[in-house]
Amino acid sequence: MFRQKAFWITMAFVSAAVLVTVAAWRLPTLISELSYAAERGQSLAMRELLSSDPMGPVGFQAVAKALRPSVVSINSVSRIRTRAPRPRRPIPDLPEEFRWFFGPDFERFFELPFPEEFVQRGLGSGVIISEDGYILTNNHVVAQAQEIEVTLSDGRRFPARIVGTDERTDLAVLKIDARGLVPAVLGDSDKVEVGEWVVAIGSPFGLDQTVTAGIISAKGRADVGIADYEDFIQTDAAINPGNSGGPLVNMRGEVIGINTAIASRSGGFMGIGFAIPSNMAKVVKDAIIAHGRMERGYLGITLQPLTEELAQSFGYSGTKGALVADVLPDQPAAKAGIQPGDIIVEYNGVPVESVNQLRNAVATTRPGTKVSIVVFRQGKRIEIKDVEIGKFPEEEVLGRGPGREESVTDLGLRVQTLTPEVARQLGVPETETGVVVTAVEPGSLAAAAGIRPGDIIQVVGDRRVTNLAEFRDALRNLGQEGIRMQIRRGDTRLFIFLRSGR
Questions:
Q1: Is the CB of residue 336 less than 8 Å from the CB of residue 377?
Q2: Of 209, 196, 155, 164, nearest to 32 (Cα)?
Q3: Would 96 be classed as within a structural domain?
Q4: Are both 176 and 48 inside the same structural domain?
């Protein structure tokens, strides 16, 4: 009887110890979850307040509280291999007494090679866009990262994976394994007005949940040189390193932009910041979540801005619109009857203000969509209906991003299949085949081999390549030393040897 009683007492103590241990282990997480739940309730209350009185006496405070649980900090780790052999440390010319003191091993220290790999850490911000853990940020915040960690407003940390990136707009979507999050509301950036108050939230210099205020300084900024597709909102709200990927918010608590870059001569904030409009971000993030990548619309035309002289020569009043300089055969525009010399004045019911606006509008139209286009031709406005948007020609980046084959990632190349249209642009016969180099990373193996943008790679090893798939397949034979390639440069063909990065 005594033994049985002692057994149950022991079991009770063991159970209590287990419960205490589990409680101690779970306590920090439970506290964080309770803190986040409190922030969630406060956020929803502030959003309701802002919807009825956006510029009330607690406007900025309400915006900060409304967005707090929706803004995250992002830390990334990239392991980068050196592209070229480094010189050994030079042996200093020191007095003989030092050599005698340290003995025969004196010179060994200086013979150590430089490290072939180093770790680069990145910092940025992001905004939660779904309750189940999708996060919108900048591509440059997570590009080339092997490890990504997201920190919520309550301090909880989650490993993140990249759902997809879009280098052309500098946007990326991440995913963390979490539930019950507070997604931000993405507003309509087309309704933004210059002079409107805005708030930027993020983690500048690692200082998470930093809130700064300013106004919209300008809209539709392009040719800034940050991304291929630019339509930036300019603001004087302070944006600094670490703010990238965080939200630009209006006084209704709606995200109207993703903070991306600054214009600065010193590297610090000088009153000019740029944010990607939320309407552009919506299209890109929806495509990435659905397909893993952004599929852009394509018309197959070359556009140029209208000058007053050109407009007058066509009998057109003003400079708003986009002049069609060339139409590629067998492409959507040609099939629809658009001609060189047409001035596109309306795209799918929206007046065309500039070449950049039209280019962005076409790119964000899903391939296969039918649109109406109004052109000015020979003094008349002509509506062309049911123009079916094509898919932007395939281009593949052979970079060092996550998920790429190592035998390819070390090359530092960007290539695309040589099409007849591209061949015409390069001034080579349309019958030529291969892959054309569109970019070469400085310091890469490709750069060391002398490969240049515009080169056409036609033979890899002993195998002729005519498209991206064949090029990738041929690179699987990349040996320990490297591989020979034959390229066409202008009217000349030459051989190069591309050394292996293994």
A1: no
A2: 155
A3: no
A4: yes
Same domain, 373 and 402: no
Token code pair at residue 148: 């990504």
Give the Cα separation of 75 and 83 in Å (integer): 25
Query: Which of 174, 73, 173, 76 minimizes the C-alpha distance to 122?
Result: 76
For the chain, how many structural domains are there in total? 3
Same domain (yes/no): 150, 206: yes
For the chain, 502 residues long, give each residue's pLDDT as a single digit of tens. Answer: 555 665 556 666 656 555 556 555 555 667 767 778 778 887 878 887 777 766 666 689 999 999 999 999 999 988 766 555 555 555 555 555 555 555 555 555 555 555 666 778 889 999 999 999 999 999 999 988 889 999 999 999 999 999 999 988 999 999 999 999 999 999 999 999 999 999 999 999 999 999 999 999 999 888 777 788 888 999 999 999 899 999 999 999 999 999 998 887 766 678 899 999 999 999 999 999 998 888 899 998 888 888 887 888 788 999 999 988 888 888 999 999 999 889 999 999 999 999 999 999 999 999 999 999 999 999 999 999 999 999 887 544 433 333 333 334 467 788 888 888 888 888 888 888 999 988 887 777 888 888 888 899 998 877 889 888 888 888 876 666 677 778 888 877 776 777 765 5
Q: Which domain holds residue 158?
A: 1-79+121-294
CATH classification at residue 262: 2.40.10.120
Q: Could you tell me whether strands 185-186 and 254-262 are parallel, antiparallel, or unpaired per DSSP bridges?
A: parallel
Q: Which residues are catalytic?
A: 140, 170, 244
User: Residue 94 domain-assigned?
Assistant: no
